[in-house]
Amino acid sequence: MRLYGLTGGIASGKSTVSRMFRELGAHVLDADVIAREVVEPGTPGLAEVASRFPGVLGPDGRLDRAKLGARVFADPTERAALNALLHPRIGQAFLQKTQALMEQGVERALYDAPLLIENGLHAGMDGVVLVWVPRALQKERLMVRDGLEAQAAEARLAAQLPLEEKRKHATWIVDNTGELASTRAQVEEVWRAMLARG
């Protein structure tokens, strides 16, 4: 099975591009969905996070993502501690899901992961799709989307490798600056290239 990485930056439009690939018939494994699954109530992952980060559980016993986010985005040490707890669990779940797709005879799949390049996962992929926008637009979209002040938006952008750096590792770049129709046309072109690879 060919496995392709799909990445971008926060507020670059990666989720939109991921949905477009799904609409074309692609199998997409979403790292964010897997990350949520490994901290569902009753999981060892949630117990570990609650122990290391007291006060991040809501009254319903679920992870309060906003509370946890405020802590880890403000402090690189805390972010590293969270990643050390969750990344091995996410990696294991990803392997299980990939194996299941292979057993179903799926010929190609995309792994939608915001930190694909930061975590070195791109090295094992058959190609990488980068969703790109200029940094100023990325910051503007993030502030609007999440209701953040400029400083908070900067902190979140600083937690990821800049899109310009990620470009160096991309096989294909989807420029998401313009209209959705333009983005969709680029996604269709990339999908055709993937299909042509067999």
UniProtKB/TrEMBL annotation:
Catalyzed chemical reaction(s): 3'-dephospho-CoA + ATP = ADP + CoA + H(+)
Keyword Cytoplasm: yes
The EC number(s) this enzyme carries: 2.7.1.24
Binding site for ATP: A11, S12, G13, K14, S15, T16
Pathway participation: Cofactor biosynthesis; coenzyme A biosynthesis; CoA from (R)-pantothenate: step 5/5
Pfam assignment, any one: CoaE
GO molecular function: dephospho-CoA kinase activity
Entry annotated with the keyword Lipid metabolism: no
Family annotation (SUPFAM superfamilies): P-loop containing nucleoside triphosphate hydrolases
Top enzyme category: transferase
Family: Belongs to the CoaE family.
Name under which the protein is recorded: Dephospho-CoA kinase
Provenance organism: Hyalangium rubrum
Gene: coaE
